[in-house]
Amino acid sequence: MTALARFRQAQLEEGKVKERRPFLASECSELPKAEKWRRQIISEVSKKVAQIQNAGLGEFKIRDLNDEINKLLREKGHWEVRIKELGGPDYARVGPRMLDHEGKEVPGNRGYKYFGAARDLPGVRELFEKEPAPALRKTRGELMKDVDAEYYGYRDEDDGVLLPLEAQYEKEAVMEAVQKWKTERESRLSGDPQQQEEEEEESIYTVHKEEPDDEESREEQEGEEGGVTFMAHVPVPSQKEVEEALVRRKKMELLQRYASETLQAQSQTAKTLLGL
Predict the structure, then answer these.
(1) What's the predicted TM-score (pTM) here?
(2) Which runs of consecutive H residues, i.e. helices, occur in the chain?
(3) Distance, CA of 121 to CA of 106 (rounded, Å)
(4) Rounded to an integer, what distance in angstroms lies between the CA atom of residue 81 and that of residue 107?
(5) 187 contact partners, CB below 8 Å, separation of at least 6
(6) What is the per-residue pLDDT across 54-72, written as a single tens digit (0 to 9) for each?
């Protein structure tokens, strides 16, 4: 037997070798030992939480420490469940939560927490930044407060800038139109003399009188006698025709009111024969 083997055996006999924590909490069947392993985990978490406060450790070391702390916290939860199964206290309800409160969860991602300097790592800091509140939409009443005469452009001329500009552009447009007219007129005048006489400028105020029909002339003469001239675009009945139509209508009303049906039928037959 070697010296190392003998030394190992001596330590086992004296009970100085540290017992390793079971990998699974379900492998432990004694309540005192389960309490012991839970306290051991809490001690390890406390040490690592103190270490992760140092931002000078580097990004990779901080990320590894944060992962180890989250792993130990999950393991602590398993041991608390096992302690409750063995008849011990329910630490999930009555136990202190100081270590859990030191970590901060990302919104929408429950379970994984960031401790100490891990909260300031690139890519993590943005996760905790609060989104800006959405801008409140204005109501119709608030929008109508800004609608006035200036909104519709009624006060555009009050600044004293628009009117001079419009006058300037109007003057330029008039000069351009006059120049164009002179150019066209000169080009026409430089052509044949016969064409020049035919295209002589005609006054826009000249009135061309056409010989009216007999009926139109008679109506115009009647209008001149009355002092007002009217032009009829549809056939208008004369006064005599209107009186005859009224008399016929009155006769028909009297016949329908006082004459019998037989007399009306005879009258209608007589009119048909006479062609009325």
Answers:
(1) 0.42
(2) 3-14, 31-51, 59-85, 91-94, 98-102, 125-128, 140-144, 162-189, 193-198, 214-226, 239-258, 261-274
(3) 13
(4) 26
(5) none
(6) 888 888 899 899 899 889 8
